[in-house]
Amino acid sequence: MGASSPGTSGPVKLDERGVIVVRKKEQPSGELEGFLDEGTSFTGEVSFHDTLRIDGKFDGSVKAGRRLIIGEGADVNAEVAVAIVTVSGRLRGQVKATERVELMPTAVAECSIECDVLKVHEGAKFDGQCVMSKRETLDRTASSDNLKKFVSSE
């Protein structure tokens, strides 16, 4: 790939600002562009076009990209700004997803999340706060006559 960089456990390619370059070539939508494998650690800033999967340890920021997948063995401490985040491992920090965040059954998320949609699977652990970006849409829907109010019997 390229020269070694401080904070990494292997060779990487850096752009002119010192930001890791995952891949610049155009990919069909949904294809994996980059992968940080188990046993690999990286500290810094990463940006990509479509999909990045992290199964290793990452500290820093993810500034651009469509979809970030945090694998079951991953340990991520980062500021994340992408469209879609899928978490199966450990995530700490701040997440701003323009579309959705999905916490899989093995996820441990200790973070603040801002997104349009949050999906938490049974078994996932979430300790933090979530702000839903499309609040005005939810407020209009909640005041609709089509919704029934449910009251707990407890």
What do these coordinates show?
With 154 residues, this protein is mainly beta. It is built from one helix and twelve strands. The protein has one helix spanning 135-142, and strands spanning 20-21, 32-36, 41-47, 51-54, 57-64, 67-70, 75-87, 90-103, 108-115, 117-120, 125-126, 129-132. Strands 1, 2, 3, 4, 5, 6, 7, 8, 9, 10, 11 and 12 form a twelve-stranded parallel beta sheet that branches. It is globular, with a radius of gyration of 18 Å.
Sketch the topology as an H/E string, one letter per element.
EEEEEEEEEEEEH
- Fraction in beta strands: over 45%
Please work out how many helical segments DSSP would assign.
1
Global outline: globular
Helix content: under 10%
Number of strands: 12
- Decide which structural class fits the backbone: mainly beta
Task: Describe the largest sheet.
Answer: 12 strands, parallel
Radius of gyration: 18 Å
State mean pLDDT (0 to 100 scale): 79
Question: What's this model, at a glance?
Answer:
The chain is mainly β. The protein has one domain.
What structural keywords apply?
49% strand, single chain, 1 helix, disordered C terminus, 154 residues, twelve-stranded parallel sheet, 5% helix, mainly beta, disordered N terminus
Provide the fold topology.
Elements: E1 20-21, E2 32-36, E3 41-47, E4 51-54, E5 57-64, E6 67-70, E7 75-87, E8 90-103, E9 108-115, E10 117-120, E11 125-126, E12 129-132, H1 135-142
Parallel strand pairs: 1-3, 2-4, 3-5, 4-6, 5-7, 6-7, 7-8, 8-9, 8-10, 9-11, 9-12
